[in-house]
Fold these 2 entries.
Entry 1:
Amino acid sequence: MDYKELSITNIPAISAIYFALLQCKYDFYPIERKALLIDKLRSFIISDCVEYDFFSDVKQNTCEVYPYWPRAAMLETATFYIDSLREQFTDFNAYKNSIMSAKNILDIERNQLFWDWIIKFPETLKLVLQSNSFSRYLKWENDWIAEQNQKYKRKLKKIEDIIARCKEKMNSPIQNIQIVLNPIKCVYSADYHLIDNNFIFCSGALSEESVIHEFFHQIVHPIVENRKDEILCCNVTNLDIDTSYYLNNDELGILNAFEEYMVRVLTDAIVSGDIPENLDVFLDQEISKRHKLN
């Protein structure tokens, strides 16, 4: 299957989320960024941001390393189910189903408090999108996106080639890939969204490892689901990943942690040029390694 030529884009609704977070003391934007860019972003901070109070509640305490997970990602997902002009969800049930079916979110992170909060998002998003301050920022961001496309032309081609080769060997329903960058979003934060077989990668910086990592989650996940009984018999208590991936340390959390571990190992292999011929065989090898540690 042929993919469209990869390029870096932005989505104004997602840009609006991070612009609003910037007004609410989002303290991850300066990390690993050059002083000139940091100063430019600071210039967009408004002294009076009462209208953005809704976004103060994006920060939670369930993920220590990145307290904006998962609410920032859930807001990103919500933008695909919103008619911002009419200030309402186009299909709230579909959005709710997508969140409730996610295997990497704790129940406490999508409880009734979350749903009571998120229902106010469409009207708040419209206020941001229509504000003069955001319009000025977006005009600058559009220029920044154009610069990123020039800067990363070779890297984009490399990512495109790697995914094309992986597609030849592995079964994936993805029809199109979109890379969305935002200069405010933490450079270490990467999320993906699957909308009608379109894979949308969203991060604060372009990294071939991150794009491939997120792309392979949707390929590895069904394999982990199909072989969960084998995996649960493995030694998966020490995978050298953040404990947040284990969620509630129940069966779902163990499988989520193992999937993350598998995708990391797979990404390392692929980036180094070693694309597995068969993912089940690759998984067999990893399961065997874990058994030997028991």
Entry 2:
Amino acid sequence: MDNNQLIFNFRGFLISSWSNVMEILEHLDWDDSPYFLDDWMQANWEFFVEKHALESEQFLVPYGGNSSSECRYTDKGRMLTHRVTCKKKGESKSQYYFFKFVTKDDGCIRIWSPFDYIYVEDIKTGDRFYLAFDEVEFSVDQII
């Protein structure tokens, strides 16, 4: 399976699991587990994308935008070797760092299904913004 499809599958997993996760969050002690959702997404990112896209001892930048390897669910503190990038369909080069899937809801951005947008950073300018999910293609690139 190619890297683009791995990321599509991860998004599909988020969508299909979302109602169950929301039910868990309703009963969660947020004082005891304030980062539950971040940890759940990161763990699944590692298992659904990283383990299939990379070789042993290679690690992706964490899901969600934090670039610290301490944010990983497994192998905390390991040197990050790769990151997910994306480009607009039909363009030749990866132009954006991928951070996470989001949804626009009444003009607000939320971490919520159907995850039809992505939060990105322009590699050249450092500007951060949102792109429609169906407008991009993903790849996994080595960090140089």
